[in-house]
């Protein structure tokens, strides 16, 4: 029998009682932190930063030194997976990521290479090991991957897209080809996450950033099913024999909570367009929920920010299974001081809320 975890983040994933609502933030490491910009400059560019375990470790730890957060997230990027599969990855100045040559026809898929995570993604796994020893059991570490669908959008479009012209063209005109691609990616993602678990991550998050651009049927057929395929393949007990929860964050998919639950995840990440209280009622204790403050609340005054935190905590109520987070990532122009206010108000307000029910 696995023993109950002690960390409040891991406890909340399993819907166990906590003293305070745990909090971590998507993109908690990154360009809004001056110390991150300094290390990135030292590395030369973002990809070198990802590929140098010492630097990736340093940058993972930076937000934990400044803020009282309940989890660390591995510093890397979802697009290292398509790179490991043989595509060329670069980050153009201000243009976002570029993957080339793009995959559009059946013959293009033959260019993809098999992935041995310990080989092509060894630098990530080394970073995981280093981060775990640096954290020294104080804070749990979250590993992650992009969802097969989200990764496929970048691989077929060649980068970010507004219209998703090519991948949706493939979806409607060559659904079998798309399915083949998704299956290929799913197997790599499963192996990659299993390798992260073997190296010590204590939870994994699957980012389905672009699930929400699909219609409801297509979401289930092309995104959810491939995430389910990944989750089914995961070794769900970690290095120390503990359970490794899966967090599934599908942006723009708040209308699909019941379907998402079928994927086998323990935690559903919500963007800010879904009402947290209503989501909790719909799921009726079948999953923990992570989220979902509008990141733009960080642009508001500290008073209004606190008010939004209080509202969100009360919307969920004094029930187990809430992990506080933003509805999407931190932006480069955000003020680190606002994160101090955010974390402190989640602490204070959630303590009050949870105490009321225990007495
Ligand atoms: O959350 C964390 O702190 C962990 C690190 C992390 C990064 N990317 C670092 C990063 C994580 C979890 C990601 C995931 C990721 N990457 C996603 C899914 C999450 C989401 O935001 O929806 C996606 C879609 C990507 C792809 C990606 N990587 C894009 C589109 C960009 C460019 C964005 C931009 O604003 O320029 C990146 C680059 C990237 N990944 C940065 C960071 C800190 C910025 C790189 C820099 O230093 O210039």
Characterization of the model:
This protein is of the alpha/beta class. It has two domains: 1-28 and 270-359, no CATH class; 42-61 and 71-266, TIM Barrel. Helices cover 49% and strands 12% of the residues. The strands form two sheets. It has a seven-stranded parallel beta sheet with strand order 1-4-5-6-7-8-9. A two-stranded antiparallel ribbon has the order 2-3. Helix 4 packs parallel to helix 8. The two termini are 30 Å apart. The model has no long low-confidence stretch (mean pLDDT 96). The site of coproporphyrinogen III has 21 residues, from strand 3 and strand 4.
Terminal Cα separation, in Å? Answer: 30 Å
CATH topology of the largest domain: TIM Barrel
* Second CATH tier, the architecture of the largest domain: Alpha-Beta Barrel
- Work out the helix count: 16
